[in-house]
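FIELD: query
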Amino acid sequence: MLRSQLQALLRPRTLRRIPNSAFSRSVSNTPTEADEALSALAYLNSQLATPTPVQHFGTFGPSVNDAEIVEEDAEEEALSFSQLLEQAETAGPAGTPISEMQRERAARRLLMEQMSAYGSTQTRNNTFQPHHPLHKPLPPSQATVSALIAAGAHLGHSRSLLNPNFMPYVYGNRAGISIIDLDQTLPLLRRAANVTRAITQRGGSVLFLGTRPDLRPVVEKSASRLGETQGFYVGERWLPGTLTNRMQSFGPDIVRNFDIVPDLVVLLNPLANMNAIRECAISHVPTIGIVDTNADPRIVMYPIPANDESTRTAELIAGVLSLAGQEGKVRRAQELAAKEKQRLLQEEKMKRYGSSEGNRKPNNYYDYE
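FIELD: result
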């Protein structure tokens, strides 16, 4: 009976309109579903509040104070439960009778508060969601093989399309599909993250390139993490001559006043952007690329063997690299702040002792240095 009452209380109901007269007249003495639910909760509380003596038979023998502790906890729980019952009965302003809907809401809230301690602790924030690789990527220190497997980074192309130069990164074959060895992908991903961090730490710019429609939000989000001065992206077709013929593409004024050539290019689909790879090689720009089993890993300077057709894999790798770039920016800001502090201290020291030290003659060998 108790289970049926609780299930009936938790069953979703259709909202019904209550006339204004229902709030003005008092609640009838006829027992309603809310009254039955409150009585069921009272019975449940009496069952939960029953003290159960607990004895631990160990080295020191049975504990005598365990039953007293259980009784005290049960009394506190019963007291809080009775207070919640009173709140459910007297919900609303003082002197104003409550309606049946208000009683049902109070009883439902009371049930949730009592049962939440016995339920699951998983929420939307501490469990995986499909949008997390894009909006909440993993930092480089937390990238694992399991995360790569969950993103589908180990799935390659057909065995007949395997490039001979990709053989060192192949784990095996399964159902005619080449499986990528993620034990080699993870250290290469961390190496690429170190390169991105070092470039942004020295004030360099990073260009994210992904020309597929599903990669456009990925490159845009990754570039936004590095700011407007160090993060750039290309989500459409790469225009030939962007780097090698930049004088005609951008104009002499822009080329003279701005730095057009990036310091690093991250390619999420390198086979579709071979023109960009050639221009980066001619302009001596280092490249990072997701290389699949049908491609030659030597086309980019820092290859990352993974599934280049998986959107989740691109989100994971681009997110890791962009967060590494953020870490480089933070380190650069700290270094600049330390240098500025050192400069101010030097200036203050020169103001105090500059005249006397400037007129002092060297006395030994070390003063000449």
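FIELD: remark
The chain has two domains: 2-13+29-55+64-116, 137-330.
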